Amino acid sequence: MKFGTIMLAEKPCVVMQHDNGGMCPVDLLLTMLDAGSATTMLDFVRRTGEDPALATALLAAADNLDDRHILREDDKTDWLPPIGNPSKILGVAFNNRELMKKAHHDPGVPNFFLKPPSCLIGHRKAIIVDPDWGAVIPEPEICAVIGHRAKHIGEADALDYVFGFMIHNDVTSHGLKFGKDSIAVTYDRDLARPEFYGWRKLHGADDTDAYYVYHTRSKGTDSFGPCGPWITLRDAVGDPNDLHVTGTIDGEAFTKDHTGNYRFSVEACIAEASRYFTLEPGDMISFGTTGKGVGRFPRGHKSLLLGETSGIVGIEIAPLGQLANPILHQKGGA
User: Fold this and answer.
1) What backbone torsions phi and psi does residue 177 show, to the nearest 5 degrees?
2) Domains observed in the chain
C-alpha cells in the first residue's frame, strides 16, 4: 500500500494508490468508514499508529469507491512532499561501504546530521541551484517515516516503529559546505583532548587542528530535499536492506547500488538514533546515498554536478517507486 500528498482544490490532500493505478482521497475513505478525518499525512500516520487495522480497512473501502471519485495522475498533478511537517529529518553520512573506503577511521557508529522540513519538495518540483555554489550533487536514498514514538529501542524492534519507506534525494552542496559551513581551528595543547582526534589521521605530534563542518546550508537549503511521491507501508517493502537503487539523469544511469552496501543497517541506524533523539510519528530518517558509479559517471553521484548540468534527476527504488525532479539554475537559489 502506498500513500502520498497532492494539492487538490488548493488544499493538501492525502491520497492512497488504488489497485487500478488511480488515487483515492483518504478523507473520503475515512468518511465512508465513519472513521473521522486525516487532513495531513502526519494526522494519518498518527491515526494508523493508534489503529493498526485502519490501512487495511481503507483498502477494502477503496474497492467500493465509485470510479468518479478516483483521481488520475496527469501532467497537472501537483505532488507535495508526502509528509511536509516532520518534527525532524535525520540523515546518515557516509553510510556506504564504497564511500567508507576513503575514511581515515571507521567511526563505528552512524554519523547523523539534521535537515529542516523547509527543504522538502515533492515529485516533479525543481531542485533550484545557484551555479556559484560549486559542487552540488544528488544523493539517492531510502528514507523511513516513523510511525510510533521511539526512545532507547533495540535493533530487533526497530522496524516495528516504522510507518513506511519512501525515496529521498539528499541534495548536497560541497561548495556551500566547505565555503560557508566549515571552519578549522588550532587548539592550544592544554585544550586538545584525545577524543577530538580519534576520527582522523594526525600530521605529527604538534597537530592540534580541529575541523568543524556544519551541514546546514549544504544540506538544508530550500529545495534540497526532494522526496516521494509515495510512502510505501513497511510490510509491503520487505527487507529495507535488500533494495536496488538507481539514479538517472534524463534516463541515463549515473549510479546503481544496493542497500545491502550500507555500513550500518536500517535497524542499526534507527536504534542508534533513538538513543539520542526521541523519534516522533512522522519523523524522517534517510539512510545514506549510493556509492557506485556506472557508465560515464565513474564516481556515481559525485560525477553529476547539478550546477553544471541540466535535465531531470530520477531515482528508482523498487518497490518504493520513482522520484523525478528537474534541475533549475537560478542566481541566489530558491
Assistant:
1) -60, -50
2) 2-79 (no CATH), 89-176+216-329 (3.90.850.10), 183-212 (no CATH)
